[in-house]
Amino acid sequence: MYLNTRSMAEVLGKIPSLLFGLLLFALGVVMTINAGIGVSPWTVLSVGLAERLPLTLGQINQVIGLNVIIIGWILGFPPGLATVFNMYFIGYFIDVLFQYNIVPTPEGLLPQILLLLLGVAVIGVASLFYLRVQLGAGPRDGLMVGLVKKLDRPVSHVRGAIELTVLVAGWLLGGPVGLGTLISAVTIGPSVQMAFKMGGFDAKEAEHMDFTELHRHLFQRPIEEQRR
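Now predict its structure.
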């Protein structure tokens, strides 16, 4: 089997951006949690489950991510390297950040709102760093795309239904729903869009490689050798 070293070097060169993006994403999540005024739907679910299961918040995030990857794969959206990295490392980094108490817990509504908004901005920048490598979308994106294909419904309807279902489930489990949940819902999309614009990344044109495509990319002979 032929290993294309140039392609391998290209992929390895993307890993630092991927890991940095996932670290930033975890930091943004922890900031929104420590703001103490409510969090995004998926974090509501994670916190709610963490209150009831003998697992850390990061481990809960990993378990949810793994299940979402499997469901998305069943629905026809195969994962990529970044999909698996997303599932594992965001949860790992969340636990590390909480363990070392990196993010302060503010008092007073204004500092809480400011920390939440800063966390949302960090999540936007993080999304740019880990998505621009195009090694696979996040687990939740795979679930959304799979459901869109199966149900033949608009993305906005499917995404809204997923977020609402997750939010209600998390709230019933005791997850923190509040003003921050509304703020997150309104601001995360524009934050990601602004980061993409500043970074010159066009999400619509991006083509993410799943594991099959990655394997083909790494073990394909250069064109000049194929012609010999």
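The mean pLDDT is 89.
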